[in-house]
Amino acid sequence: MTRLWNDPADFADEMIAGFVAANERYVRRVTGGVVRSTVVPQGQVAVVVGGGSGHYPAFGGLVGQGLAHGAAMGNLFASPSTQQIHAVASAAERGGGVFFSYGNYAGDVLNFDAAQERLRADGIPCDTVAVTDDIFSASPAEKHKRRGIAGDLTVFRVAAAAAEAGYDLAGVTRVAGLANERTRSFGVAFTGCTLPGAEQPLFSVPDGRMAIGLGIHGEPGIDETGIPTADGLAELLVSRLLDEVPEGVDVSGARVVPILNGLGSLKYEEMFVVYRRIAELLGAAGVEIIDPHVGEYCTSFDMAGTSLTLFWPDAELEALWDTPVDTPAYRRGSVVAAAQADASADADLAAEAIPPSDEASRAIAATVAQAVETIAATVDAHVDELGRLDSIAGDGDHGIGMQRGSHAARDAAIAARDAGAGAQTVLARAADAWSDRAGGTSGALWGLILASLAGKLGDVGSPSSADVASGVAAGVQSVMTYGKAEVGDKTLVDALVPFSVELTHGIDSGASLAAAWATAADAATRAAASTADLLPRMGRARPHAEKSLGTPDPGAHSLALIATAVGAVLERN
């Protein structure tokens, strides 16, 4: 278990501060993460990676010469927010565009895609390859749905090497995509991991048993078996990966980079015993091993487990793979040290001014702030329940993420209200704060919902009930567009859509906002309960679909709780 922390809510920020203090010759801190502290040639493509904290050396530990130019670092096991990714990419960009790469998780995809859109609107060209190396998380026919685990390293390293070699953005994207196609991984675990301050691990494995096909965020394994010998584990890992080699690879005579990755608590000596047999098995299959890796490259806090990655490079990829690398946690070859960059240009932006408002809108703003305070209190009251629901088939952090986001939204809403902001600005500031602080899928989606509603409130005058219903409907559209979920996928959408439909119907029928909202909240509550009968088709719960049967979706449940609580605020006002 994790033993050393101050306030668990501050753990990620304090960890990043300490990491930077210990590695200033490699990295410097910027809003949202870190970038290289050394000079980067003008016109070079900036390779920006990222994901949740808790996976060191991924992601900040891989920033440096020959590898990433920047890393967006989210909260523990939560994707970085759109704002964080945008800030890191803006700081790393040097005129050649930005290439993004990260593990294929719903929250990361949503937030990186949104940041990419913002950068393109800023005139900065961008492209992306999401890593999909985990063979156990989806079938070969649906490999685009697979998640990224330790195979991140091969894609990151090839992309960065191409950037160092002067490839343009299209060229970097091409070889990164090829590296992803030629990377396969498979992992096992003997124990779960415990986040700072948590009393229980995110999942557990019975004594003497081994979880197969686990995720790196504490998602439980796809299957379970008895713990084999070291040789037996090597045979399991190699046989599964040789059963699915990339298209165009003939195993006999092929060259491969094996990466045996420790997930946090497995000792190097144990991994060397396993790797000894891996090397024998690959040799017996006629494979030529090049540049073997044994160590920690993508961890999961204190999880006891390991994964094997096989990277099958062609001639171009192998030449790029040989590029020297010098980062805080990963070094290969000899790098000519670059000069330290001048960070003085990265001054913080001044606080954004409060737009003008009138008395009518400020009165509505007070109700909006009260509603956001109520949301935070509601999440606090149910945080353990939400975490428990999420741990059944996910990674158990929904309650913590909702708490971080709602608290940040509450503080931002109160500050904007006290500064004299109108209703739109109060809710828009809350939306940005929720998205930025919570990160992850839920943070991004709640940011979209609140921002869409804010856009219909205005800072002058009083919005009509129809305006509120229209704002909620706009939020539904944004969530479904960015999150790609539909009704029936067992997500927040299953409660949000009926809530919006009932709210619009009630207001169109002449009901007051409070009455229509109460009816809509009841519809959302029933719909959320009904998700217990669904199998998840999106997000981290999807690989563990059967485990979630009988349990409502935590995102839909939390939305229903919040809708009901906000309804009480509207009734009082």
Layout of secondary structure:
Elements: H1 11-22, E1 27-30, E2 33-36, E3 46-53, E4 70-76, H2 82-92, E5 98-103, H3 106-121, E6 126-131, H4 152-164, H5 169-181, E7 183-189, E8 209-212, E9 223-226, H6 230-242, E10 255-262, H7 268-284, E11 288-289, E12 293-295, E13 305-311, H8 315-321, E14 325-326, E15 331-332, H9 359-393, H10 398-418, H11 423-438, H12 440-454, H13 465-483, H14 493-508, H15 513-530, H16 554-572
Parallel strand pairs: 3-4, 3-5, 5-6, 10-11, 10-12
Antiparallel strand pairs: 1-2, 2-4, 7-8, 7-13, 8-9, 10-13, 14-15
Helix pairs in contact: 2-3, 3-12, 4-5, 6-7, 9-10, 9-11, 9-16, 10-11, 11-12, 12-13, 13-14, 14-15, 14-16, 15-16
Report on this structure:
With 573 residues, the protein is an alpha/beta fold. 46% of the residues lie in helices and 13% in strands. It has helices at residues 11-22, 82-92, 106-121, 152-164, 169-181, 230-242, 268-284, 315-321, 359-393, 398-418, 423-438, 440-454, 465-483, 493-508, 513-530, 554-572; strands spanning 27-30, 33-36, 46-53, 70-76, 98-103, 126-131, 183-189, 209-212, 223-226, 255-262, 288-289, 293-295, 305-311, 325-326, 331-332. The strands form three sheets. Strands 7, 8, 9, 10, 11, 12 and 13 form a seven-stranded mixed beta sheet that branches. A six-stranded mixed beta sheet has the order 1-2-4-3-5-6, sandwiched between helices. It is globular, with a radius of gyration of 24 Å.
